[in-house]
Specification:
There is one protein chain. Helix content is 16%, strand content 30%. By secondary structure, it is of the alpha+beta class. It has two domains: 64 residues, RNA-binding S4 domain (Structural Genomics Hypothetical 15.5 Kd Protein In mrcA-pckA Intergenic Region, Chain A), CATH 3.10.290; 221 residues, Pseudouridine synthase (2-Layer Sandwich). Strand 2 and strand 3 form a beta hairpin. The termini are far apart.
């Protein structure tokens, strides 16, 4: 079933002024070719201040650009969202692997946010943190301005405790270890940039414990003290043990297409296949001040069903 289409709006700033309309879109949004963007401008899908323009129109500071994207068929994803905690201020839900949290990358209505807006039409639940599309488990969302403000502060002050389950390969992995590899942006041939292990990136810390050593995999518990994008995927890969099935991050914490230039495909962060689950969440209720701890059982492949060797 096709969605309703979408209008993307953005404002030109001083650094973007002077570009042609075509150069702006073709350089900024590389998921489409220059010819495709030119066709959209000529058919008035792209406008300036709600007026038609030409591909050669020079942009000025403060102008509003709109891209009227026609309806499209979104990829099928699991939409079974389980509410684990609910009150007037907040929601805690279990997100299935494969469901994006926010619109983007071809997804609009097949997102966690859109599905929750359908369930709660009088409000817009606001995610306090993010999970990658391929990550399952606990998501915390605010339902009131008070909750949004106070939970955001807890997140910023690192007062929200998040524990994950992750599946990596086998090897000489210590029982307990900490990864403090900085994470920053690097160039990407399609997206412009993405996050990876970089020597001059932002501070990031993950504490890791081995839960089970299996014949072909190792089950880990990972507690993150910072919330950098794709932190666990990058950290474990930088340590030499990428998540099993991760199509993006290779050993060293950098993308496969940069790590191995012979690769024919270019992976992006939203690609699935890895095994990562947001297992446990602790925070202080934003209104009542009470401590809340919630656990979400992981998928079977991440369950603790085998004896620890």
């Amino acid at each position: 079933m096709m969605n309703q289409g979408w209008i993307y709006r953005e404002q030109v700033d001083r650094t973007q002024a002077g570009f042609t309309l075509l150069d702006y879109y073709s350089q900024r949004y590389r998921h489409s070719t220059r010819a495709e963007w030119c066709d959209r401008i000529l058919t008035q899908q792209v406008q300036i201040n709600d007026q038609p323009a030409t591909p050669e129109t020079i942009l000025q500071p403060g102008q509003w650009l709109t891209y009227h994207r026609p309806p499209w068929d979104e990829p099928s994803v699991p939409l079974d969202i389980q509410v684990l905690y609910e009150d007037a201020d907040l929601l805690v839900v279990a997100k299935p692997a494969g469901l994006p949290v926010l619109p983007g990358g071809g997804f609009l209505e097949h997102t966690l946010l859109h599905q929750l807006q359908k369930q709660y039409p009088q409000e817009t639940p606001v995610p306090i943190h993010r999970l990658g599309r391929g990550t399952s488990g606990l998501m915390l969302l605010a339902r009131s301005p008070l909750a949004r403000s106070r939970l955001t502060k807890q997140m910023r002050d690192r007062q929200i405790r998040k524990i994950y389950r992750a599946l990596v390969g086998t090897g000489n992995i210590p029982d307990l270890f900490t990864i403090a590899q900085p994470i920053g942006k690097i160039p990407h041939p399609v997206l412009g940039h993405l996050y990876a292990a970089t020597p001059d990136g932002q501070f990031a810390q993950s504490d890791v414990q081995v839960l089970q050593r299996r014949s072909e995999s190792t089950l880990l518990s990972v507690t993150i003290h910072t919330g950098r994008p794709h932190q666990i995927r990058i950290h474990l890969a930088s340590f030499g043990y990428p998540l099993i099935g991760d199509p993006l991050y290779a050993i060293g914490g950098i993308p496969h297409e940069i790590h191995d230039s012979s690769s024919d495909s270019i992976a992006v962060p939203g690609d699935c296949g890895y095994h990562l689950h947001a297992y446990h969440l602790e925070f202080v209720h934003p209104r009542e001040g009470s401590a809340i701890a919630i656990t979400c059982p992981p998928p079977t492949i991440l369950s603790e069903t085998y004896p620890i060797n």
